[in-house]
Amino acid sequence: MLRLTLRNLAAHKVRLLMSTLAIVLGVAFLAGVLTFSHGLDRTFSGIINGSTPDAQVRPANSTTATEDAARPGGGSEAMLRPEAIERLRTLPEVARADGVVQGAGLYVLDTEDKLVSSSGAPTLAFNHTGSPNLLGEPMLELDLGSWPKTEKELVLDGATAEKAGYEVGDAVTLIAPQGETRRKATLTGIAAFNGGGTAGAQLLVFSTAGAQELFTEGKDVYAAVSLTAAPGVSQKELVEAANTVVPDGFEAVTGDKVVAESEDAIGDFLDVISVFLIVFAVIAVIVGAFIIVNTFSILIAQRSRQLALLRALGASRRQVTVSVLFEALVMALIAATIGVLAGWGLAHGLAAVFRQAGLEIASDVLDLTPRTIGISYAVGVFVTLAAALLPSRRAAKVPPVAAMREDTQPPARSTVLRTSVGLVLLAVGLVLAAMPRIGIPEISLPGGFEVPTSPALWVGVGAGVSILSVAWISAFLGRPVLAALRTVSGLVFGMTGKLAGQNAMRDPRRTGATASALMIGLALVSLIGVLAASMNASISDVVEEEFKPDLIVQSPTFTPFPTSIGDEMEKVEGVATVSRSQVAQAVIGKVDLQNPKKNEPAFLFGVDEDMPRIYDLDVLEGSDDVKPGQVLITEEAAKEHKWQLGERIDLTFRSGRQLHPQISGIIAKTQVTGDITVRIEDLVEAKVPREDASLSILLTPGADPAVVHERLDKLVADRPVVAVQDKDEFAESIKGQVNQLLYMIYGLLALAIVIAVIGIVNTLGLSVIERTREIGLLRAIGLSRGQLRRMITLESVTIAVLGAVLGLALGVLFGVLLRDALREDLTSLRVPLDQLAVFMAIAVVVGVLAALLPAIRAGREDVLKAIASE
Amino acid sequence: MSLTDPAPREIAAQAIDLHKTYGKGAAEVRALDGVSLDLYAGQFTAIMGPSGSGKSTLMHCLAALDKPTSGEVVVGGRKLGRLRDRRLTALRRDKIGFVFQAFNLVPTLTAQENILLPLSLARRKPEKGWFDQVIDTVGLRPRLDHKPSELSGGQQQRVACARALVSRPDIVFADEPTGNLDSTSAAQVLDFLRHSVDDLGQTIVMVSHDPVAASYCDRVIFLADGRIVDELAKPSREQILAHMADLQSRAMGLAPIGEDA
After folding, report:
1. Is residue B59 part of a domain?
2. For position A65, what pLDDT does the model report?
3. Does A348 lie in the same domain as A231?
4. Nearest-CA neighbor of B43 among B172, B230, B231, B212?
5. Range(s) of the domain holding residue A508
6. Are the Cβ atoms of A774 and B60 closer than 8 angstroms?
7. Closest chain B residue by Cα to residue A791
8. Considering the domain boundaries, does residue A611 fall inside one?
9. pLDDT band at B245 (very low <50, low <70, confident <90, very high)
10. How many independent structural domains does chain B possess?
């Protein structure tokens, strides 16, 4: 039996390869994603560990100092004086104490005076001290040149220098946050974090004096201190000793704690990426499973006579089942092996894509871990065996007498039960998805479980159940579609079209299962398409409704910029009003000294007196005319904090200053400002460094908007940090971000479609083999090679279009329902008909491509051999 | 070969010194070994011979399904040797009709669609009068909308015959058309073929090893070891049987191990 199985496998190498390809791709994607996430994890933990000292002295009640500096409006006022560092340095436990100077708002311009994009990763600007990390190694590695010595020198990371086109010795143009905003510094070297790479962050390393000139107005003060322990001193002992001399408002923490905090902070971000990618890997594996089921079913149908012979010769049902399953196991092992190796390659590909996007991942951390290999093999084998189980049981049911029958086609099985069960499941799925419309019941289940109330979750689960049910009964649901397609192709292509339509209907279950793979991919694509189009429409609506100024000035990366830009704009001819807004952070409510983690700072907006006049805020209570000492809050904030109009709230800033503004107005949620809005004057009083997050500009009556726009553009031409946008440009810039995400998701779903194409190739290939004699007959009585190819192509297109019709219908249905569940954010519904048409066209192209190989193969078949076969 | 009928006739298809070999060296098999043959229009010709005599290969070469190793085939006045696949396909579709032993019909199409298949592949309309005449001769009018799976074996073969005739081909090739049928159905099919020659003026060439089938023919050609060894005009079943036995014993004499066909 075993030998027979292996013979079977060896006899159909090409067929085997095609069958395994689906699972190879699924496993490859999974292994690739796992390897990539692992590499991502290691890259970040390498950087964090490599750049953290034994202990750090930092402002109390803060988390990692570097992170604070990178946050907009997070600049801390409290600074350490050199004497404090000197005191630390004299402690016997301390081997080294190095003052850290760092700051935000610094940008590098390339040789063509364009901003070097940072793609979301932070720009880290600080002084070079040479202090070692907690492993005793240097924190930074110099790849080239030397460290900066004078105030007019700096070191960059390799990626930034390359992007900007600078070489060692060149003069680098910088945009500074204060003082002389545009300045030059000589590039003296190229550096990277210890262990290589920067994970996309831009490194700008200065001498201590240079950093102080940029960030502390030249004063000899420091934001933090890196401590290095004397030999034999533990981190804990070091921190205890340091805390005895640390000035008020500062604390010493161990390097381990800093590492844990940093990993916590980055962990969420990494988890999002990993989960996001793994979701697509799971989709790929599910789609692959469909193809395995189908392939095995066809192979067993074709082998039924051989299986019957085995049964007639005395093989038990069990032996037949086991033999088929064993065949699947061998296939799975081969597929998983190729898949894991391909996954390793894919991980490098993903890393290259992320590198393009600016997130540098060292390729030496993209290793196949035993965990990745284990999971990939387990999933590959499990999915293949599970998919082969049904066909293998069917194989065992082939009666021995079938060996003697002329007709090898198994009799049509009743599909009534399957169809009924599928229809019931589909109904359940639809009801689940419609629950948010009907009303989610609020019942608590025994055991303290509660019915989840998230409408999106209900729709998601309903969509999942429905899509799988439709796949299950695609033979039934697809029949009217196939009949319609047959009529159409018969009308357009004559007899070849009709034959193709008939062939697709010959085994509706096979056609349905093949189409299902494509259906799943296209359902998801069109669902996402509906959501994205709705989101873009909603953005347009919001912008249309809320964008009141003539022009808006802000940074494309939403980073703050110097107030001098606004000052200059006020002087431009045609500009009537420049309204400023600033973003700051403060702890809301009472500061809990016992439990610093609870003091998570929230963002608040600072505005000037013009803001309420320019924008048309929806005032629910009080007035939107916020004055110094007052605060404007949204309905959501009022609900969350149980605030009432007229009440005073507590805000504690980084500087330690507190404000107690009175609530003067409650407004509906808006994109114009945040949950909490105070006057900029109050922020100044709270010692928040003054900078602008956005400027809203009104023109003088009669001024030509285009002309003023041009003047302002000219003004900011050498300040690439900010952009001037009118209403349409503003909407487009936001939509651009939505579309970027959309294309990324499309890219990932493309894999599911590639697998579906393989499924169609497989089914067609096997069908062509099955119909060799019929094809020979057709050729003998006058079907030309071209007509034969057209017939197979049309059958393929029919399958693909069936998948597309079902997929698009489901995708649009659930897209609409999901949009409805999310209607608070997605205020308008838009079904992107143009995109759906493109998807349909893609399905046709997919059909044509999938038919290429089988059609060529069938065309090459010798007519005579085809007739004489058997 | 000598002409059995002194009256000059139009030639529908012609084989000139056909050779067909498979394999090389020691494994070489000569399926056809210098066959020259004229097939006359308006005649029902049978090609007979034991298994391995080359009769099927001869028919496949004549019908443009296979290419001879050397020699020339002429169908409807056209030499096949130089034709590319596209022309051969068109020739098969327009000038030649086929009836095979089994699997003659496309299972997804009705009887009528099967009959009209060569015409619809060429995007031609059937001649109404001719179509009706063929259908009536074949006697299948009430079954035209049935799928092949709903027809008996004899009915299926008659549908296949109707399909072969519907495009008014120059010549129809039938490969053991009654091989899979019981004697009653076989007789119906053979009657139909005879009628189409006598009443409809068709030209039919049939490969068979059944003397009963061959007795319906105007002319019987005997093949052995890839050569034409004999032919009879309008033979009776007994004549054919006697000839077959003669051939058999000659073959036995040449090769003592014998062929059991």
Report:
1. no
2. 37
3. no
4. B172
5. 474-548+727-870
6. no
7. B121
8. yes
9. confident
10. 1
Domain-located, residue B1 = no
**pLDDT of res. A11:** 66
In a domain, residue A689? The reply is yes
A834/A800 same-domain check: yes
> Stretch A436-440: mean pLDDT, rounded?
76
> B165 to chain A: nearest residue by CA?
A781
Q: Which of A486, A502, A781 to mutate to test the interface with B (most CBs of B within 10 A)?
A: A781
Q: Are B89 and A867 a contacting pair at CB < 8 A?
A: no
Backbone angles phi, psi at A578, to 5 degrees: -120, 110
> Would the CB atoms of A774 and B66 count as touching at under 8 Å?
no
A22 and A130 in one domain? no
Same domain, A296 and A346: yes
A438 within domain boundaries: no
Same domain, yes or no: A260 and A117: no
Average pLDDT over residues A499-508: 87
Give chain A's domain count.
Answer: 4
Report the pLDDT value the prediction gives residue A77, as an integer from 0 to 100.
Answer: 55
Say which residue the tokens 């010798």 belong to: A862
d(CA B33, CA B54): 9
> Residue B178 sits in which domain range?
43-54+84-254
Residues A735 and A827 in one domain: yes
User: A858 and A762 in contact (C-beta within 8 Å)?
Assistant: no
The interface predicted TM-score of the complex, written ipTM, equals 0.81
- What's the rounded Cα separation, in Å, for the pair B198 and B203? 10
Contact indicator for A506, A690 with CB cutoff of 8 Å: no
CA–CA gap between residue A679 and residue A690 (Å, rounded): 12
Same structural domain for residues A493 and A560? no
Residue A808 placed within a domain: yes
- Model confidence at A767: pLDDT above 70: yes
CA distances to A1, A309, A773, B93 from A314, in Å: 11, 9, 31, 48
> How far is Cα A385 from Cα A329, in angstroms, rounded to an integer?
6
Is the pLDDT at A806 greater than 90? The verdict is: yes
Looking at the fold, whether A337 and A390 belong to one and the same domain comes out as yes
pLDDT tens-digit map of B145-192? 998 888 888 888 889 888 888 888 889 998 888 887 888 888 888 988
pLDDT one-digit tens code per residue, A376-397: 999 889 988 888 888 888 777 7
d(CA B247, CA B252): 9
pLDDT in the model for residue A426: 92
Q: Residue A54: exposed, middle, or buried by beta-carbon count in 10 A (0-12, 13-18, 19+)?
A: buried
Q: Average per-residue pLDDT in chain A?
A: 83
Continuous H helices in A586-650 = 611-614, 635-641
Nearest by CB to residue B92, choosing from A496, A780, A786, is A780
Looking at the complex, does the CB of residue A785 fall below 8 Å from at least one CB of chain B? yes
Q: Tell me the CATH number at B160.
A: 3.40.50.300
